[in-house]
Amino acid sequence: MSFESIISKVRECGKKTVAVSVAQDEAVLEAVKAAKEQGIADAILVGDEAKIREIAAQIGMDLGGYEIIDEPDMIAASLKAVKLAHDGVADMYMKGIIDTKNFLKSVLDKEVGLRTGGVLSHVCVFEVPGIDRLLFLTDVAFMTYPTLEDKIHIIENTVPVCKACGVENPKVAPLAAVEVENPKMETTVEAAELTKKNLAGEITGCIVDGPLSLDLAIDPEAAKHKNALDRRIQGDADVLLFPDIHAGNLVYKAMVHMIPGIKNGCILTGTKVPVILTSRSDTFETKLHSIALAAVVAEEMKKNT
Question: Any idea which fold 3-116+271-277 has?
């Protein structure tokens, strides 16, 4: 599976619509333009129309096929954009140049937001050169210090994303510094508890095996060298479940900035529709892949509904 196959899958299920909050951002508009050209998604652009048109002219973007809602005020624009997703006019909701704090306020707004009553978490999907499958990293950007109960919800939010991307029974690796349970290391205790709950049928739709060190989770050779051939995950994990935001974010940024040719896309899950939450420093390509990822997840949610 690759991002190209995800994009192909979107084309098969039909073009989606994304509502963009505060759309006057060059990388966002480039991603939206590419998404439309590649048959992934149409867009409703909410923000300062004059600035949107100015940036579009600079990047050669024809706005003739786009709906633009003029709202110069960022907070008001975010509420108008999220309402489009809330009301079913848009299939996805995307962050533009607005800061993350105010963007999330719109997502959580009681009147027009995208709350479902469940826990929200962030999933980042990587296509890594040399690894023959997609890797799903969670949570690297939203939940700071997840409890055991939070980690259960994170898994429940991530499994449908895996399935939408073609991974029917994902292998989830709760990561720790070591691969054995140690009462003095709470992360390993919680990882072992997640494994027990999975074996008992309390966490379904996936295989959970932890605690696992990162090398055992992603490298089959490491599993051989460490005589870990009795584990249910032997270097073939699909999901890397991090103990906290520090571990997740450090690994995420190391991968993005140190691995040539890597591709990724990110969404916020646990919401009424997929939410495209990327950093302002993320490339146009990452934003495009995030739109594609959100589109296949939106289709999966539509089927389940």
Answer: Rossmann fold (3.40.50)
